[in-house]
Amino acid sequence: MITGAPKKILKELRKLSVKHTRDKTGLFIAEGERLVRSVPSDIIKYYVFSEKCGRDFTDRFDTGDFPAYFVEDGFFREICDTVNPQGAACVCRRKEYELSDLFKSKPEFIVVGEEIQDPGNLGTIIRTADAGGAGGVILTKGSADIYSPKVLRSAMGSVFNIPVYTGADMEEILKVLKKKTFLFWLHILGEKQPPIKWI
Q1: When comparing pLDDT for 194 and 176, which is higher?
Q2: Please, which residues have CB within 8 angstroms of residue 1's CB and are 6 or more apart in sequence?
Q3: What distance in Å separates the CA atoms of residue 80 and residue 60, rounded to the nearest whole number?
Q4: Residue 138, beta-bridge partner list
Q5: CB 51 within 8 A of CB 69
Q6: Is the pLDDT reported for residue 164 higher than 80?
Q7: Fewer beta carbons under 10 A from the terminal one: N or C of the chain?
Q8: What is the pTM of this model?
């Protein structure tokens, strides 16, 4: 059953458009029908639908035991990053990883991104790493927020499929990779660096 969102929920939704709040609360908004459907149930906090689309989406979404709210169309556009939002979103809890988590399955390779600041590029890198069978993605400090709307859209759900460790220091990465005796390291460099470096 979908109910009107209380003031507490409206306040939270408004604040989650800011990275500082996402970092502080560990929450983020996944928006768009395709992306919402790809979110694992164990990280969902609640669903949000626009008033106009909400009634239709109740028939197409199984919200299970999770709370589900509808908000006014104008407010829904305000909390979403797209020009013409589809009317479906959910608030999710971030998955936090330790660097060691990426090596538990003994992956053949890991993708490392250094200061990838363009959200579209970062989302594409995560999606490509997922499709290519990488064991995970390591991002250095200075990279874009993987839970920003643009990264989530570009990654097309891959953020939920592959572990991504953020805020790494390059020396920390090198130490771990040497300990794991990787045969090679594929380093995807930032826009201001040389194209590709092999070690």
Answers
A1: 176
A2: 68
A3: 20
A4: 112, 165
A5: no
A6: yes
A7: N
A8: 0.86
Closest by CA position to 122, among listed 87, 150, 157:
150
Each residue of 90-136: pLDDT tens digit?
Answer: 999 999 999 888 988 888 888 989 899 999 999 999 999 999 999 99
The helices-and-strands tally (H runs, E runs) of the chain is 8, 10
pLDDT tens-digit series, residues 7-63 = 999 999 999 999 999 999 999 999 999 999 999 999 999 999 998 876 666 667 778
Distance separating alpha carbons of residues 182 and 129, to the nearest angstrom: 17
Q: Are 133 and 165 in contact (CB under 8 A)?
A: no
Kindly list the distances between the CA atom of residue 3 and the CA atoms of 31, 39, 56, 83, 143, in Å, as whole numbers in the listed order. Answer: 19, 21, 14, 25, 38
- For tokens 């909400």, name the residue: 54
Token readout for 134 is: 């990488």
- Count of CB atoms situated within 10 Å of the CB of 90: 23
Tokens linked to 14: 């408004």
